[in-house]
Specification:
By secondary structure, the chain is an alpha+beta fold. It has a domain at 5-105: Aminopeptidase (3-Layer(aba) Sandwich), CATH 3.40.630.30. Helix content is 28%, strand content 36%. The protein has helices at residues 15-24, 37-47, 93-104, 118-126; strands at 5-9, 53-60, 63-72, 77-84, 109-114, 130-137, 140-147. A seven-stranded mixed sheet has the order 1-2-3-4-5-7-6, sandwiched between helices.
Length: 148
């Protein structure tokens, strides 16, 4: 398990895949505005050389199946932009991703999720994440979850 999953740093040729995937699922993101081609390129230019947060395409058996970002927060890893493409959901892919991340580093994993995203919260809880807090930003409730 896990050997078929790899992480590929986001490259210029991935931007259209990312944009389409994110736009198709934008209701799950804190910023749910539609992403244009120019906005995507501007974002990529900004994050391309960021040494604090890394953005990846999740690859399974040679296929792009989703995205994730990881930021080393010192005592924990903060996950973001977690998105598994619709045809690949409920197949254990994110469980494999979490297992790999824990093997790479035993640090706790932290994620913040929109409180109304019940499906994602259910997945995190099923994978052993625990709710550690909540915050409201711009009238939007967010849950903080952590897996030790």
């Amino acid at each position: 398990m896990g050997k078929s999953i790899t992480f590929q740093r986001i490259a210029l040729e991935d931007l259209e895949y990312l944009r389409n995937l994110r736009n198709a699922n934008r209701e799950y993101f804190f910023d749910s505005d539609e992403i244009t081609v120019s906005k995507q390129k501007k974002w990529f230019k900004k994050i391309q050389n960021n040494s604090f947060i890394k953005f990846y395409i999740i690859i399974k058996n040679g296929q792009k199946v989703g995205t994730i970002s990881c930021q080393d927060m010192g005592k924990m890893w903060e996950l973001g932009n977690v998105l598994i493409d619709e045809p690949y959901r409920k197949k254990g892919i994110f469980r494999e991703v979490v297992d790999i991340l824990h093997k790479v580093s035993p640090k706790p994993l932290f994620v913040e999720v929109r409180a109304e995203n019940k499906e994602a919260i259910g997945v995190y809880l099923k994978l052993g994440f625990e709710e550690i807090g909540a915050v409201t930003i711009n009238d939007e409730r967010r849950l903080a979850l952590c897996k030790k």
